[in-house]
C-alpha cells in the first residue's frame, strides 16, 4: 500500500508540472496583465470557481463546496486549499527527512522515532519558537490578504488579494507578466499539494497502525 502511494505521489508530482490544457473559453478569464494584483485572473462567473487555475478539475469538489458561492467565498476556500497544499508538501518531505536523516536532537542514528510522535518529544525550548513562528506567519497572512475585523464582513478576502499570493518569492519563480504561465504554475502547485495531502494522510495512518516509519515499512 505504501509503495503504491509513493509511486502515485511521485507520478503525480511529475505530471503536475506538465503544461495544463487550457480551454479556449478560459482565455477570457486569464489574460496577460503586467502588474495586475490578481496575476492576470479575470473572474468569470460562467467558469468553475470563477476561472481560478485548477478549477476545471471539478472532481476535486465532489461535495460542491464552491457551488453557488460568491467570489469572496470562493477566494476564501481557494486560499485555504493553497495553504493546506503547501503545508502538505512540506509535511511529505518532513516525514522522510525527520525519520531518515541525522538530526541535532536524535544524533546520527537514522532510525528515529516515527514522525507522528516526534513533535511530542520536542522540549519546550524548541516548541515555543516553532509555535511563535507559525503564529507570526499566520498573522502576516491575515494582514496581507484578509479584511480587518469591523471594516467589512468577517472571514472575507480583500478584493485586491489573489488567493495564496503572499508576495514571498525569494527565487523569483513567479511569472509576473504572463497570466497563462502563472496559471500553469498554479495548476502544478495545486496538483502537487493535493497529492501531498493524500500521501501524508496515508503515511500518518500507516505509522499509527504499524508503529514503524515510512522507510522502515518499505524495508529500508
Describe the structure.
- With 220 residues, the chain is mainly α.
- The chain has a single domain, classed as Chlorophyll a-b binding protein (Orthogonal Bundle), CATH 1.10.3460.
- It has helices at 2-16, 71-100, 115-121, 124-145, 179-210, 214-217.
- Helix 1 (2-16) runs antiparallel to helix 5 (179-210) and helix 2 (71-100) crosses helix 5.
- It is globular, with a radius of gyration of 20 Å.
- The model is unreliable at 1-36 (pLDDT under 50).
Précis, in short:
By secondary structure, the chain is mostly helical.
How many beta-strand segments? 0
Determine the oligomeric state from the structure: single chain
Number of helical regions: 6
What is the terminal separation in angstroms? 15 Å
CATH class annotation: Mainly Alpha
Q: What is the helix fraction of residues, given as a range?
A: 40-55%
Largest sheet: none
Stretches where pLDDT falls below 50 for ≥5 residues? 1-36
State the order of secondary-structure elements, H for helix, E for strand: HHHHHH
Number of domains as seen in the coordinates: 1
CATH topology: Chlorophyll a-b binding protein
Features:
mainly alpha, 50% helix, disordered N terminus, 6 helices, 220 residues, single chain, Chlorophyll a-b binding protein
Task: Annotate the secondary structure layout.
Elements: H1 2-16, H2 71-100, H3 115-121, H4 124-145, H5 179-210, H6 214-217
Helix pairs in contact: 1-5, 2-5
Amino acid at each position: 500500500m505504501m509503495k503504491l502511494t509513493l509511486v502515485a505521489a511521485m507520478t503525480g508530482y511529475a505530471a503536475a508540472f506538465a503544461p495544463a490544457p487550457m480551454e479556449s473559453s478560459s482565455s477570457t478569464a486569464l489574460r496577460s496583465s503586467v502588474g495586475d494584483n490578481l496575476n492576470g485572473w479575470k473572474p468569470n462567473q460562467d467558469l468553475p470557481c470563477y476561472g481560478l487555475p485548477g478549477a476545471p478539475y471539478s472532481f476535486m469538489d465532489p461535495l460542491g463546496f464552491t457551488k453557488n458561492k460568491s467570489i469572496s467565498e470562493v477566494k476564501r476556500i481557494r486560499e485555504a486549499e493553497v495553504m493546506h497544499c503547501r503545508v502538505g508538501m512540506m509535511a511529505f518531505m518532513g516525514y522522510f527527512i525527520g525519520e531518515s536523516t541525522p538530526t541535532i536532537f536524535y544524533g546520527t542514528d537514522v532510525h528515529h522515532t516515527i514522525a507522528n510522535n516526534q513533535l511530542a518529544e520536542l522540549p519546550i525550548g524548541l516548541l515555543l519558537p516553532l509555535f511563535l513562528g507559525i503564529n507570526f506567519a499566520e498573522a502576516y497572512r491575515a494582514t496581507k490578504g484578509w479584511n480587518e475585523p469591523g471594516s467589512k464582513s468577517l472571514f472575507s478576502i480583500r478584493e485586491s488579494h489573489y488567493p495564496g499570493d503572499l508576495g514571498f518569492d525569494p527565487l523569483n519563480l513567479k511569472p509576473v507578466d504572463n497570466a497563462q504561465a502563472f496559471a500553469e504554475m498554479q495548476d502544478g502547485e495545486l496538483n502537487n499539494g493535493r497529492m501531498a495531502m493524500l500521501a501524508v494522510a496515508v503515511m500518518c495512518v500507516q505509522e499509527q497502525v504499524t508503529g514503524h516509519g515510512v522507510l522502515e515499512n518499505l524495508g529500508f
